[in-house]
Write a structure and sequence with these properties.
single chain; Aminopeptidase; 13-stranded mixed sheet; about 35% strand
Length: about 280
């Protein structure tokens, strides 16, 4: 007997089922991590006999959207369910540019849907070595939010104002100031097995080092994760700080003509799902 698959809009009622899928896929996401993504975007679930057997989310950041959390129950794979979930989620969000972070297994599907590889995502994690703080970094205040949002928009080409607002409300952000302005920022937040640092935006790798060192020193001692990119050039320094490389993914893009003609760079992602 063939299972009947139905599709529904992803709601909070599906979070427990989604969490089961990510655990079976050995993804580190907590229920709170799923909930954050659902608050920022919208998605679709596949159901079989009332159980969640697939998910896909779309997170819109202005003219750019991230496709994410595309998971299919291992027992349901090979039926084209991943493609159906992704296309349904994308149909609900009308933007000229799509981005995602692909796993090796998902790469063939995304290429068939017109996504092209743009960079490599490098995941580093572990226990950071003790840091020697040299000053120049401080915690952000509410008045810094517009400047942080502007920096992020310049570095990513996406309008992630809602994400920055949420991170400032629920987590902690460090900044580097130059005169009265903010020239770099980094966020420290709970994620998965421990703490995650990201996003990190700055003009130079030296400023990124300052921000990361500050947050490594200020975070509760324990497991730390940073998702960077190959083009950022941060990976050797992270390894030297005790955060070993443990894989990653592939940054992909479809459509769009985003050109970032400014010195600001994204040195670490907010998450694989958020870019």
């Amino acid at each position: 007997m063939t299972d009947t698959i139905t599709f529904e809009a992803f709601t909070a009622a599906h979070l427990d089922g989604a969490l089961r899928l990510s655990r079976e896929a050995v993804w580190p996401h907590r229920r709170e991590d799923w909930h954050l993504l659902l608050r920022l975007g919208r998605g679709v679930v596949a159901l079989s006999r009332g159980a969640v057997v697939g998910t896909a989310l779309a997170t819109r950041f202005g003219a750019v959207a991230m496709a994410n959390m595309i998971i299919v129950d291992a027992r349901m794979r090979g039926r084209g369910l991943g493609r159906q979930l992704l296309t349904r989620a994308m149909d609900w969000v009308d933007v000229p540019e799509w981005r995602l972070t692909a796993t090796k297994d998902g790469l063939p599907l995304f290429e068939k849907l017109g996504f092209i590889a743009t960079d490599r995502v490098l995941q580093h994690q572990g226990l950071p070595v003790a840091q020697v703080l040299s000053g120049g970094v401080d915690w952000a205040g509410a008045a810094d939010r517009p400047a942080i949002q502007a920096l992020d928009r310049q570095a990513t080409g996406a309008n992630r104002a809602a994400l920055i607002t949420l991170l400032m409300h629920e987590d902690r952000i460090a900044v580097v100031r130059e005169g009265a302005g903010v020239v770099g920022y980094a966020c420290l937040r709970r994620f998965g097995r421990g703490q995650l640092v990201g996003p990190v935006v700055a003009e130079t790798v030296e400023t990124a080092h300052l921000l990361l060192g500050f947050l490594f020193a200020k975070a509760p001692r324990g497991f730390m994760r940073v998702d960077t990119t190959e083009s950022a050039g941060l990976a050797p320094w992270l390894t030297a700080q005790g955060l070993a490389p443990v894989g990653g993914g592939i940054s992909m893009q479809r459509g769009g003509t985003t050109t970032l003609a400014n010195p600001l760079r994204r040195f670490a992602l907010a998450a694989h799902a958020l870019g």
